[in-house]
């Protein structure tokens, strides 16, 4: 028995899909929902940490108006303020979360979370703060 061959390749219709823009669009349509879902899950996990450890002072609106704020002489930072949050280097945010407010010359009432949160959670919390202030995660590594 001999194989029957087509004069026209059976896969000829698929060749255009291999050309750059069409292939890119197909892959993007396939993987974008998965990426978006992963991002949502990441922020939900970190938001739960924020709601557990930070909301009492920084507030549900993340603007420094938590239930404890009225009793504090040094007011909690407004994490939604892109201008102010944009001035703070990443290493200072990490230091404040890890070692407490006093480590960055802020309130002694801000606890050190370094023994409560993992290093990964602290870094994700820093990313979350950049996310909620819309001040970018890109260039805040200056010292």
Automatic annotation (TrEMBL):
Keywords: Heme, Iron, Metal-binding. InterPro entries: Cyt_c-like_dom, Cyt_c-like_dom_sf. Residues 41-133 form the Cytochrome c domain. GO terms for molecular function: electron transfer activity; heme binding; metal ion binding. This is Cytochrome c family protein. It comes from Methylacidiphilum infernorum (isolate V4). The lineage of its organism: Bacteria, Pseudomonadati, Verrucomicrobiota, Methylacidiphilae, Methylacidiphilales.
């Amino acid at each position: 028995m001999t194989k029957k061959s087509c004069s026209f390749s059976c896969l000829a219709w698929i060749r255009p899909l291999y050309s750059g823009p069409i292939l890119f669009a197909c892959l993007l349509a396939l993987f974008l929902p998965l990426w978006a879902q992963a991002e949502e899950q990441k922020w939900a996990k970190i938001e739960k940490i924020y709601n557990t450890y930070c909301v009492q002072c920084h507030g549900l609106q993340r603007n420094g108006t938590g239930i404890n704020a009225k009793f504090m002489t040094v007011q909690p930072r407004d994490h939604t303020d892109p201008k102010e949050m944009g001035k703070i280097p990443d290493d200072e945010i990490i230091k404040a979360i890890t070692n407490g407010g006093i480590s960055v010359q802020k309130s002694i009432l801000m606890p050190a979370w370094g023994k409560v949160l993992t290093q990964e959670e602290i870094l994700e919390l820093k990313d979350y703060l950049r996310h909620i202030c819309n001040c970018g995660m890109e260039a805040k590594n200056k010292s």
